[in-house]
Predict the 3D structure of the following.
Amino acid sequence: MRITCPLCGERDRREFYYQGAAVLLERPAFDASDEAWDGYLHLRDNPAGKTRDLWYHEAGCGAWVVVTRDTVTHAVLDCVLASDVASGARP
Amino acid sequence: MRFSGLRVLKEGLTGNKGWRPHWRDPDPKPDYDIILIGGGGHGLSTAYYLARTYGLSRIAVLEKGYIGGGNVGRNTTIVRANYFLPGNAEFYSHSLKLWEGLEQELNYNVMLSQRGLINLFHSDGQRDAFARRGNAMINQGDDAILLDREGVRDHLPYLDFDNTRFPIYGGLYHPRGGTARHDAVAWGYARGADQRGVDIIQNCEVTGIDIAGGQVRGVQTTRGAIRADKVGIVVAGRSGQVAAMAGLRLPIESHVLQAFVTEGLKPIIDHVVSFGMGHFYISQSDKGGLVFGGDLDFYASYAARGNLPMVEHVMEAGMTLMPMIGKARVLRSWGGIMDMTPDGSPIIDRTGIDGLYIDCGWCYGGFKAVPASGDCFAHLIATDRPHPAAAGFRLDRFRTGRGLMDEEGTGAQHNLH
Ligand SMILES: Cc1cc2nc3c(=O)[nH]c(=O)nc-3n(C[C@H](O)[C@H](O)[C@H](O)COP(=O)(O)OP(=O)(O)OC[C@H]3O[C@@H](n4cnc5c(N)ncnc54)[C@H](O)[C@@H]3O)c2cc1C
Ligand SMILES: [Zn+2]
């Protein structure tokens, strides 16, 4: 599995640390309900097929990236900077 | 048809012509009292105990593939009761006791081999943690012996004791731990359930769950609609998708775990051994193959096959610990889909929809749980109350934060358990 970092280019999967589903970018407000925090920390759509998850380019540039992948074929479809997703610059 | 030594002898002398299929192959009926979705180890054991303990028989197990094709036929077969936290400890203790009587119970040879399990440690800190775990196991009524380095050498003389990077300080020895024949466990429970009237229906995928007025009414399948007022979801790695058919979102992320087996060798590894530095564990099957594995590949996956980085890591760890296995040829590797929870512990609970129950979240330790999970899930479905040994496996512990059982203390990240 190879991932194309927007800053470094195509790299071996071993350079990246997997954190979890990209829902982790949608952190609830401090005083949000138990349900909101449960949804953020624990509950997952867990799709068989296309998914978006958060990775860290640990052995590269140190950027957090959102990777669009297929969980059934292991194909990597897209990779963008997490900061662009969080700011709304990228969907 | 009962198995016995005499029977084996008779069949052997008469060309083995008398054996019959171990279970029927029925078509689905239009309705049942209870439907279990998933014919893995847990679905089959649940069906067995529903029939055997509660005398129920209008039960169907719906399996989308074939019995034993999921994780129950893909695991590395380790059975143990060395959990630390209350909630888990009593459950796995209960399960090991059921294992110890399982062959007589099922009249089926599941090849339970209590060859002993040794978890190695490599630092003072790890020794302290294992000493504490051993005390917890003894307090639970199970067995644990803390071995020093020489104690380990008596059991496992072939390890690399000269390794300076990862010196062996000792090991926690659990004599009642061991292995069992995974397929036989699925087959034995399937046969036992079938003999008590349970319909085991293979090639029958559930595609929808019917709910009316907050009460489950049945399921849609590739072989038509089937009615039942009680439905249990027991689908391991597929839990998220099947629960979504009922509008539920689960605290589960599915990950791939790989395992490996070598060509058959003469007996060399008598125990189950795990390395405490780098994830690697190994045992030798009765056929002689070295069966070993390591950690998850770490990214969400439904592929049931892994990638090369974890293969490399597992081989490296194995070679570090026991260089003698280096010349053995690996025959096969494969993967299974693991239902990982945010605290690494399972769920056996109601769902908030009347009549709909769920048993999931076994991460990569659910083979040893097959007997107790079936016993406890059957209890929940039959009586609507949790079994005392599984009372901690609540679905709402993640929302409330009460009763989390994070054995490894790694926090709410699904792949770290
Ligand atoms: C490589 C590997 C090593 C492991 N090693 C160990 C070990 O040493 N010790 C240990 O305790 N545990 C181990 N495990 C974990 C253990 O195998 C699992 O936790 C356990 O088998 C899961 O429960 P099960 O047997 O019911 O799952 P499965 O056998 O996966 O059963 C689930 C069934 O549900 C069916 N299903 C899914 N969706 C549908 C649907 N829509 N309709 C109908 N049926 C459906 C599937 O086809 C499948 O047969 C290991 C797992 C793997 C992959
Ligand atoms: Zn980068």
Observations:
- Residues 24 and 42 of chain A are 10 Å apart (CA to CA).
- Chain A has a mean pLDDT of 97.
- Residues A 5, 7-8, 57, 60-61, 63 surround zinc ion (ligand 2) (CB under 6 Å).
